[in-house]
Design brief:
alpha+beta; five-stranded antiparallel β-sheet; about 475 residues; three-stranded mixed β-sheet; 3 domains; Sugar ABC transporter permease; MetI-like fold
């Protein structure tokens, strides 16, 4: 038996020396074969050149489509509308002194605060609730479906949804339907007496007789300007008969088709106006009231109505409720934000649902076992664990909202476009609109870039932190 076999330590030391000799030989051989000069990261210089060649087309496109437009916009913003006169920061000063641009800036603040917050909140609610229902996948599909529609198509859809005419606009059709459920519409909107009739306007859309009525008399109240649609099913008018202890009369449409009728006289074929309210007014106080029958007649008790004047209140003639002016100056921005939320709540829901799938169920079950209610579990466990995902969704939507243009341009009518103005739309109007001023438009573009950069910086910092984890 040799000494090496008898001494294990010497055998290990020999193996180590042999390994070191082998590594040194391999390293020397690699240097001798000319593997190339290595870069800082240990890559051969040849590979660095190959990587640069492959990156060159992307860098050229990035420079042509991103870097050059930014540099040119900054340069162009320092000149006047013609591009010949240097004005320095004059365009930026004009940007903050122009009323239309200040309105656009205020609207952008509303957009950035409201739209991403509401979309993210709805996405969170949808993502949490759909986990508890069997048809949650189908619900997610329906909510996410608007993302497949372009902004142009969505704008056209909501321009019709918000149409003022209830027969075309879905929003007003629903609103008018709910309103008419609790408030009876006027029976004959727009109707009025003849110019020289005994009935006179008495303020607020009501009509009152000039002379007081006597007990046992019949007082006829003729009207004109009744729409044909309101006369469907109307019966022929009947002259009221005087009755003791009553004040009677007839309310009818004093108009004969084809002509030949006599004013203030019930002619054959003239239609009764049923359902109108007739009031007896004394000293500004209603002392009696009646409703006209199907033949247009009414009867008031003489004890209260005698010596009073007759009034047809404005509720008989009020125009039909037309709903809400969704696209008027007051509501146009919230209405457009509603269309944006309709589109992007599905996007938020999908991202939050993906994050929710990674939440450990053991934590939720442990909280429930410890006696926490569902609201406590949601507020103290689910939301904190989803905080990184919620920040991603919120920041993404904020960047998207700062560039909003097409929805506002399509949905807002010409009468409300100034009230709905945003910076991206003002950029388009200043650069390509009626009063073209490319210097001012470039200044708005640079300002928009400066607004987006802090949000992008926060997003990049968050991404770096996630990578370090």
């Amino acid at each position: 038996m040799s000494d090496r076999q008898r001494d294990p330590k010497s055998r290990v030391r020999g193996d180590v020396r042999a390994g070191a000799t082998t590594e040194a030989g391999v390293a020397g051989k690699a240097g001798a074969t000319g593997g190339g000069r290595r870069g800082r990261e240990g890559l051969p210089a040849t590979r660095r050149w190959i990587a640069a060649v492959f990156l060159l087309p992307a860098l050229l496109l990035l420079g042509a489509l991103v870097v050059y437009p930014i540099v040119f916009s900054v340069y162009r913003s320092l000149f006047d509308a013609s591009g010949d006169g240097f004005v320095g920061l004059g365009n930026y000063g004009e940007m903050f002194s122009d009323e239309a641009i200040r309105t656009a800036l205020r609207n952008n603040v509303v957009w950035v605060v409201v739209a991403p917050t509401v979309s993210t909140a709805l996405g969170l609610v949808f993502a949490v609730l759909t986990e508890r229902i069997r048809w949650g996948t189908a619900f997610k599909l329906v909510v996410f479906m608007p993302m497949a529609i372009s902004m142009l198509a969505a704008g056209i859809i909501f321009r019709l949804v918000y149409d003022q005419d209830p027969e075309r606009g879905v929003a007003n059709a629903v609103w008018v339907g709910v309103h008419d459920t609790f408030a009876d519409p006027a029976p004959f909107p727009g109707a009025k007496p003849r110019p020289r009739a005994d009935l006179r306007p008495s303020g607020g859309g009501a009509f009152t007789t000039r002379s007081a009525v006597r007990a046992g008399s019949a007082v006829d109240l003729p009207l004109v300007a009744v729409r044909q649609d309101d006369l469907r099913g109307a019966r022929p008018a009947v002259a009221a008969v005087p009755r003791p202890g009553k004040v009677t009369g007839t309310v009818w449409l004093d108009f004969t088709r084809g002509g030949g009728g006599r004013p203030d006289v019930i002619d054959g074929g003239e239609r009764a106006l049923a359902g109108l309210t007739v009031e007896a007014v004394r000293d500004g106080r209603v002392v009696a009231a009646a409703t006209t029958a199907a033949d247009g007649t009414y009867a008031l008790p003489a004890e209260q109505a005698g010596g009073a004047r007759l009034r047809l209140p404005a509720s008989n003639f009020a125009e039909a409720y037309g709903g809400v002016d969704w696209l008027g100056p007051a509501l146009v921005t919230p209405a457009i934000i509603g269309s944006y939320v309709w589109m992007w709540a599905g996007f938020a829901m999908v991202l939050i649902a993906a994050g929710l799938a990674g939440v450990p169920r053991e934590l939720l079950e442990a909280a429930r076992v410890d006696g926490a209610g569902e609201w406590q579990v949601f507020r103290r466990i689910t939301v904190p664990l989803l905080a990184p995902v919620l920040v991603v969704v919120l920041v993404t939507l904020m960047i998207n909202v700062l560039k909003i243009f097409d929805l506002v341009y399509i949905i807002a009518p010409g009468s409300s476009i100034r009230s709905a103005n945003v910076l991206a739309l003002q950029l388009f109007q200043s650069s390509f609109g009626t009063d073209v001023d490319e210097g001012l438009g470039s200044a708005i573009a640079v300002f928009l870039l400066l607004l987006v950069m802090p949000v992008m910086y926060v997003n990049l910092r968050r991404i770096r932190k996630e990578r370090r984890r």
